[in-house]
Amino acid sequence: MELKDKLISSFMAFEDQIDVHSELHNVRTHAIKNFESKGFPTKKDEAWKYTSLNSILKNDLSVFPKKENSVEFKDVKKFFLHEIDTHKVIFVDGIFSSFLSATTHDGLDVCLMSSALNKPKYKMIIDEFFNKIASKHESLTTLNTAFANEGAYINIPKSKVIEKPIEIIYFSTGSEAALMLQPRNLVIVGENAHVQIIERHQSLNENPCFTNSVTEIFAQKRAIVDYYKIQNDTLEANLIDNTFVSQKQESIVSVNTFSFGGNLTRNNLNFYHFGERIVSHLNGITIIGEKQHVDHYTLVQHSTPNCESHQDYKGIFADRSTGVFNGKIFVEKEAQKTNAFQKSNNILLSDKATINAKPQLEIFADDVKCSHGCTIGQLDENAMFYMQTRGIPKKEAKALLMYAFSNAVIESIKIPALKQRITKIIATKLGVKIGFDL
To answer: What DSSP line would sit under 106-155, residue for residue?
Structure first.
């Protein structure tokens, strides 16, 4: 049975297993009908022109894990930001792990999506926020909506500054021959509140895994949100990450995406402005090799005056890897005084590596400062020669140039322990030890 048919036939059984109120049932039913109509995206769709899911869909994926699995902390400690204290919402094969988690209801909610969806006390919040900015038309997002039940639910009240970062980690144990996971996250950050969140999806063995994740982030007036996505998975892991961000007046939201591992990774990142003096930051570093594939698809919709957006994506591609950057800045007629900037810089380390870049501007206002740019090239041979004449071996010189190329995005990391962790991953990817203090 094809995966599409398996999912559609599983939908009624899924709803029978959970306690769901009628409004949510209607949302799910509409979503599964949309997916049934459209199916999985193909390269015939303009937005998926350079990314094919065919190789993933050929796997005989289990839609639900057959049993509950557990993992020992010592076996997964390296995936946590264990150098500092954090709130933790951890899932194993899509099921919440109370043993590995550190949730809280003490002045804020860092807990489970299943509780928020199914408990009456959360109904007003769910009615106001759930599925309000996630796409109602894009097939993979609506597929996730149809099966949405488990994930992280984070609600930060007004004027609350969260001192500890929040970690959201999804582990796949590989106990199934091939598994599909569909986590759903909802993040609500109140007026003047501030939060830092780290999200990671991690396979623990070499069995194929296909994750179709959706996250909705609501930043209220003057809220500050720093969101970090760590993508450093095994070569059998596939991730479709759909993130939708709603910003209100004077809020600042930064989403930093670090793509180092996995077979196929697709990041759909969408920002929507609902107020003046909003600032949006979209940053990314991609360092991949072999036959890995990373696709960044971004949208910033400027619909109100006096707002800013800044996109800075760096890519380093080796072997037969493929990168895609498709970024769009949309400025509506009312969005005067918009300041929007988009940049995609890429280095190809191999003649067989590929990058497909399509920066786009659609501007309907006449008093704006908007620009976009894209570069694709190789390492500067003159700089390499200069460093080697100063006694720096070729391998280290090459790594230092690539690190310097990525440094602007690295500097945007506001959690020191995470900055160190990312630097170590980059050094490992580049095959050197970076011997200076960071």
So the answer is: SSSEEEEHHHHHH-GGGHHHHHHHTTSSS-SSSHHHHHHHHH---SEEEE
Q: Are 182 and 148 a contacting pair, CB within 8 Å?
A: yes
Q: Report yes or no: 133 and 166 within 8 Å, Cβ to Cβ.
A: no
6 burial via Cβ count (<10 Å: 0-12, 13-18, 19+): middle
pLDDT in tens, 274-285: 999 999 999 999
Query: In whole angstroms, what is the distance from residue 153 CA to residue 317 CA?
Result: 35
Contact in structure between 423 and 386 (CB atoms under 8 Å)? no
Radius of gyration for the alpha carbons in the chain, expressed in angstroms and rounded: 21
Residue 2 backbone phi and psi in degrees, to 5: -65, 155
- Per the confidence metrics, is the pTM higher than 0.85? yes
Residue type (1 letter), 2: E
Q: Compute the Cα dihedral for 331, 328, 405, 410 and give only its sign.
A: positive
- Convert the pLDDT of each residue in 150-206 to its tens digit: 999 999 999 999 999 999 999 999 888 889 999 999 999 999 999 999 999 999 999
Helix (H) or strand (E) segment spanning residue 30: helix 22-38
Q: Which of 158, 185, 175, 150 is nearest to 65 (CA)?
A: 175
Q: Is the model more confident about 411 or about 399?
A: 411
